Amino acid sequence: MTQPTNSLRGRVAIIGAGMIDFGELFSMSLEEMIEQAYLNALASVDKGLDAGEIEAAWLGTVYPAMGNTGLVLAHATGLFDIPVTRVENACATGSDAFRNASMAVAAGIYDVALVVGAEKMRDEPGGLIARSALKKLWLGRGVTMPAYFGLRATAYMERYGVGREGIAAVSVKNHANGVKYPHAHLRINCSLDEVLKAPYVSYPLGLYDCCPVTDGAAALLICRAELAQRYTDSPVYLLGSGLATDSFVRGGDLTSFKATQEAARQAYEMAGLGPEQINVAEIHDCFSITELISYEDLGFAPAGRGAELLEAGTVMLEGERPINPSGGLLSKGHPLGATGVAQLVELYEQLRGQAGAVQVKEPQFALQHNIGIGRWATGSVGCVHILGR
Amino acid sequence: MIGIQGYGVYIPRQRIKLGEINGAWGRSGGRGELAVATRDEDVVTLGLKSAQQALAAANIPADKLGAVYVASVSSGYMESTVAGQIGYALGVAGDVSIADFGLSTRGVTSALRACADAIACGRIEYGLVVGSDRLIARPGSTYELSCAAGAAAILLGRESTGTLAELEESAAYSGSCLGRYRAEGQFRGTTDERFVMEHSYLDQLAGVVEQLSRRDEQTSWDHVVLHAPELKWARRALKLLKLKPESLVSSLGQIGYAGCASFLIDLALALEQARPDEIILAISYGPGGSEAFTWQVKCAPGLERPASAQSQLEPGENISYPTYLRYNGLYAQQPGGQT
Amino acid sequence: MTPEHWRLRRANDRLIGFKCRSCGWVSFPERRKTCKRCRAAPAQFEEIQLSPYGKVLSYVIQQRLPEEFESPLAVAVIELEEGARLYGHLVETSAEELHVGLEVEADYRVMYRDEGLNVYSYKFAPRRNVAHDPAD
Ligand SMILES: [Zn+2]
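Structure tokens for the assembled complex are given below, as produced in the milestone run.
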């Protein structure tokens, strides 16, 4: 594999991955979740890895805004005396932590690094809605997460003549997958009818169109590609990475996310791959509509035609290109900082053939995606990673 | 001469029927309804809307205003400025004179007089007088059956071709009975109402009319505005002052009592009903005094103008008693909800 | 009044916006020195009075909000006549009349309460052809 100096392609390997079962984890603190995810990642390394080999660590976590520094990770893991950096980038927090760690490793600064994404969501009873910055003039002003994505849904339905059922099919698929995924928060099936008849959270999005409020943590161990065989015979390589931001105040249509499109463009270009070569993907479905729009932004379907992938079965677990075999955020939950890292954990297992009940048939290339909102619901950040065996 | 160059009225669309309030408290009957502001309205937002309309009607830009005077007894603040907030949002220039008149509903005519004086002495060219109130009574009290929300504004300036009415004569009177009172944090309604009506209200209205008669020989007016918290008070005054019953202009029966705003809303109604050369008598009332003004109508705006006062008296959207309580922030904060 | 509120006051209370002389993009509510559309840096911005009229580009009806907000609460992405795009709470709008493309006008309301102080901003109501301008 060629390694241009301005690319991450093939320079970083994932050699260990672990997460905790997501859910309402009232019995675990943020640090306890981090500790367990870290231990699970360490234990997953095929040929073993000693904690002393970890030279640097990155923590992705969103709340609280202040105080949750890298020190939290150090206290949770005992990894003192080494550099630990905390990353926050909305819903792309975990994947951006991975991205930053990968850049440091690719640059040859560190041989082995730890990435942990974690979030304590349920200690705040109101969940994300209560945490939305509502008291902001012209910014947050009542635009909660379901509202932000609901605004996309209304615009999408209006522009493409898609009904709520076209969007709801995402929810049906992901909940069915989640039943089979051991780490998922919600392991319940729901029918199209149930999705459509559930109470509205933010019209046009109903309860099952929205991800639950979930605690969780996930961890990855990465190393320079040349050292991968020291830890495992089947490492997973980072092939492409992209990150971009956008804002609704810039104009543009409300039926796509330019931040995703730009991040995807960067990642595909770096990997030298196109969407048609991706075999499995974990993409951001904080709300059903988000996944539908992301099919299009990531190049899996033309604009306005994402729903056809569901109708044709392409994105189903048994389909040609399964999307969100883990059940996605809709089933697994969306502990902000943990989300991106957990998606990467799942894809690591998929590429190594260890995904159990949700294993996709011999995937070679996998894509991970987040689309987050920030700056009081005005800006968005997209992050895309492409992994390969 | 000083004239009214424009006016604006803003009455919230929501109404609660008196029968709905009575029903909630196990009482029967009650005719009429009250204008109710929603949860996101207050004396600033109500007042601003009326002020914007007054300026638009007169076609005078806000930066020409020399004064913005706002009267309100329900801003809820012990310290702040409603006039400053309204003036800024209107777009006034930096040299404007801003003042808040409160504590007594009579403040609306104190504002009017201050504004007219400033124009008369040549200090300012135009001044805006706004009355804005959102009165909230203790749930279950008699006051609840009259307290309402609304705002109105009049733009005063030197008489010109567009003048709606010209200020003729004025008088003031202060009596011995101060009437209603309310301490910080208290609901209104701590006084004996019959006592207040007889010894404050009727005394003041008779007193101010007597003062007016010393300056003006007129004893009969085409349209009469009698600022009153209840329609029956105004009717009593009408009889006492031997005025023609049909001359009374009042919105009380249709929208209830909105404090300082009611005086200006009724003045606007009188303008809309009047014909050129008719005379309007308008008397304010509030703790501590009354003021009377007579206006000669020049070019009556009529009922056709957009957002006329008359059109806003029409029944609006009816709301339930629980909604009314929520809008007014009156749901129980503590078990028992004792106040 | 808080410093943050004060900094936004001209935009918030008077609907003053800033238009990029290079590409015509309208910056609202903030005044900044760089253009978010054409990346001009520094950009030349011209102060403009925004119109109180605009249209609904998309909307949601929120059912579950903290107690201090009325719910259901309709919130829309609104584009003002000059092109500025913003979030607007819809007031006095029935579910039947709410649709993409609805013409609206700015309506000054209490946005939220902050330590006993009412903080105001423009919300939006269906355009009812009542003459008024926010700042003249
Ligand atoms: Zn520009």
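The first helix of chain B runs from residue 18 to 24. The radius of gyration of chain B is 19 Å. Further analysis is deferred to the final report.
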